[in-house]
Amino acid sequence: MDLLTILSRTFFDFPSMMEVLPQMLATGLVNTVIISLAATLLGTLFGLLLALMGISPSRWLRLPARLYTDLFRGLPSILTILLIWSGLGAIQLSAVRSDTLPTGDLRA
């Protein structure tokens, strides 16, 4: 069997794709909406809190906000996600470790 035949059977099997497409769309769309809404809500709340801390007259609130902002602004997003996820796993949070939705791994 030549390479072209293997590639076409692996990546261009349109009847098989059409067979699983409705299930993939139904599952993927629901999970995408859940992840997007959760990320929007959490990001907005955390960003508002961080912004209020950053403009606070109290030095004890302003300093951690500035440090956090300066640190995470300089890191690539994927590195930040991996650092946070690895840290949550390292402290043995059982609710986080059993749920794969926060990582975007929806196979489970």
Distance between the termini: 34 Å
Overall outline: elongated
Structure summary, number of beta strands: 0
Which whole number gives the mean pLDDT? 83
Question: Hey, roughly how much beta strand do the residues contain?
Answer: under 5%
Uncertain stretches: none
Q: Write the element-wise H/E pattern from the N-terminal end onward.
A: HHHHH
Write a structural description.
There is one protein chain. The chain is an all-alpha fold and 108 residues long. The protein is 78% helix and 0% strand. The protein has 5 helices and no strands.
Keywords:
single chain; 108 residues; mainly alpha; 5 helices; 78% helix; 0% strand
Task: Give a nutshell description of this structure.
The chain has helices at residues 3-11, 14-54, 59-73, 77-90, 94-98. The longest helix has 41 residues, at 14-54.
Topology:
Elements: H1 3-11, H2 14-54, H3 59-73, H4 77-90, H5 94-98
